[in-house]
């Protein structure tokens, strides 16, 4: 089919972001499994009676009918599949969703990636269903870990990423701090720590969680509430630094997310709580700590 | 390249900077100005000059005004217990023209948009909190657009305002007047159903 064929094509897509165009139109940045990321104009979408008004909102999953345009494609029809209206009803959920959509917006245009589309779809669905902060955090952290893995940057946990030596931590020792290098992509043994001056140190519990998250099939498969407040914060730092180092972008929505996260009460266990349930070391794959 | 005398080219260049004005529309406007009576063009130029020189934000609510404090804020007939928070001065004018609201306003100067990097610190929120401390407001009406950005702003403000013991309300969501139920999308119908009222 020619690039400028007038035959409309269907696209099941998630609205990543929108910008106003002219008086009444919107430009949507869409992510679909078949066409990858692309932009389309929703004509008249800012008018209250427009049929495209509701569908052209960020985080919406919809089936579009799109016509090729000379510079921008035009969405002529759309039907909402999942509006994810509960996300917009909560500040933390909105902050996570905006951040995840901005992460997806960095991929190049017109490169189909079914796994990325599915990852975002599942994460937005989990955020929409999330009742409390733990569930929203689980969805966001799971997406970050899986996104890194999808791009080929899944961190090596349990072995030194520099020399390959196994890093052994007793299963009940959750608080031992281990060096983690975002740029080298994994944990570092004591002998290799100096290889990355920008390394972080994180408790074993955070790194075990990172390992589990990278492999979890869905956000529900990982229990964020088992992490102490400190472990959760350090897990977030490891994931965020890894994304910044590998993607070489600073996301505008991250600042907002950090502000909301610091303001929202955290339901997880305090740092020194003895009742913290460790991730079972025996259930983790051999490379995990 | 099209040839235009320098003053005409400059006018076209300026007109094309206006929203929704493309080269053709700019050309039509420029030739209209060129043929219009001199007093009309003088009046247009003076109006543009005046709007830039005299219009400024009201120091109390942020609405456009040519005084220190706008007419709405100074009007003693207004209900001071009601405060309607809007995103832009244009939204204020729309609500005002509905002749339904007799309280006062506060203009945020936009709405929060995390993806575009617009956070609460870029909005007129500190001034709103200061007003609420100084004025006897009983109800704050959040009149932002029913978009994700509007909802984000409304949620943020509601979290700030509720601890103050204020009544916080939001404009109703539902079917537009003159709209056809059969063509409404599921989100609008869901909003209308949630916001239904006794008949």
Report on this model:
- The complex is a heterodimer of chains A (289) and B (199).
- By secondary structure, chain A is an alpha+beta fold.
- Chain A has 2 domains: 76 residues, Nucleic acid-binding proteins (OB fold (Dihydrolipoamide Acetyltransferase, E2P)); 156 residues, de novo design (two linked rop proteins) (Up-down Bundle).
- Chain A is 33% helix and 20% strand.
- In chain A, helix 2 packs antiparallel against helix 3, helix 2 runs parallel beside helix 4 and helix 5 packs across helix 6.
- The longest helix of chain A has 19 residues.
- Chain A is elongated and about 60 Å long.
- Chain B has 199 residues and is α/β, with parallel strands linked by helices.
- Chain B has 2 domains: 49 residues, RecR Domain 1 (Helicase, Ruva Protein, domain 3, Orthogonal Bundle), CATH 1.10.8; 135 residues, Dna Topoisomerase Vi A Subunit, Chain: A, domain 2 (3-Layer(aba) Sandwich).
- Chain B contains 8 helices and 6 strands; from the N terminus they run αααββαβαβαβαβα.
- Chains A and B meet through helix 1, helix 2 and helix 7 of A and helix 7 and helix 8 of B.
């Amino acid at each position: 089919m020619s690039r400028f064929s007038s035959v409309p094509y269907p696209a099941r897509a998630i609205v990543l972001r929108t910008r106003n165009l002219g008086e009444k139109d919107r430009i949507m940045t869409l992510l679909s499994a078949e066409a990858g990321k692309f932009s389309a104009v929703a004509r008249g979408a800012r008018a209250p009676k427009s049929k495209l008004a509701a569908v052209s909102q960020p985080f919406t999953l919809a089936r579009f009918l799109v016509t090729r345009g000379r510079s921008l494609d035009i969405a002529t029809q759309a039907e909402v599949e999942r509006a994810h209206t509960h996300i917009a009803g909560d500040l933390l959920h909105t902050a996570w969703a905006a951040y995840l959509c901005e992460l997806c917006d960095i991929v190049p245009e017109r490169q189909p990636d079914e796994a990325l589309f599915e990852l975002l779809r599942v994460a937005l669905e989990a955020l929409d269903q999330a009742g409390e902060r733990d569930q929203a955090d689980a969805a966001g952290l799971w997406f970050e870990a899986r996104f890194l893995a999808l791009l080929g940057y899944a961190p090596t946990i349990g072995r030194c990423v520099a020399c390959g030596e196994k890093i052994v931590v007793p299963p009940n020792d959750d608080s031992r701090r281990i060096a983690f290098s975002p740029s080298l992509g994994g944990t570092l043994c004591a002998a290799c720590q100096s290889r990355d001056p920008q390394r972080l140190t994180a408790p074993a519990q955070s790194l075990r969680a990172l390992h589990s998250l990278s492999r979890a099939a869905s956000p529900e498969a990982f229990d964020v509430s088992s992490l102490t407040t400190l472990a959760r914060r350090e897990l977030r730092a490891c994931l965020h630094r890894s994304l910044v180092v590998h993607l070489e972008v600073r996301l505008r929505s991250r600042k907002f997310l950090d502000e909301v996260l610091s303001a929202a009460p955290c339901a997880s266990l305090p740092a020194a709580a003895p009742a913290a349930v460790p991730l079972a070391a025996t259930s983790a794959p051999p490379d995990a700590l | 390249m099209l040839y235009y005398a320098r003053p005409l080219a400059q006018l076209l260049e300026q007109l094309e900077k206006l929203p929704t004005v493309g080269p053709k529309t700019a050309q039509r406007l420029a030739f209209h100005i060129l043929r219009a009576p001199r007093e009309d063009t003088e009046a247009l130029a003076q109006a543009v000059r005046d709007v830039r020189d005299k219009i400024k934000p009201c120091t109390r609510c942020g609405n456009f005004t040519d005084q220190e404090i706008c007419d709405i804020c100074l009007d003693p007939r207004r209900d001071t217990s009601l405060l309607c928070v809007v995103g832009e001065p244009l939204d204020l004018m729309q609500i005002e023209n509905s002749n339904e609201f007799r309280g006062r306003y506060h203009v945020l100067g936009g709405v929060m948009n995390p993806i575009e990097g617009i956070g609460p610190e870029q909005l007129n929120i500190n001034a709103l909190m200061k007003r609420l401390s100084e004025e006897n407001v009983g109800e704050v009406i959040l009149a932002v657009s029913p978009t994700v950005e509007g909802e984000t702003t409304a949620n943020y403000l509601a979290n700030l305002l509720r601890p103050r013991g204020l009544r916080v309300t939001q404009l109703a969501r539902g079917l537009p007047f003159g709209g056809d139920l059969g063509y409404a999308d599921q989100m609008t119908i869901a909003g209308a159903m949630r916001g239904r009222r006794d008949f």
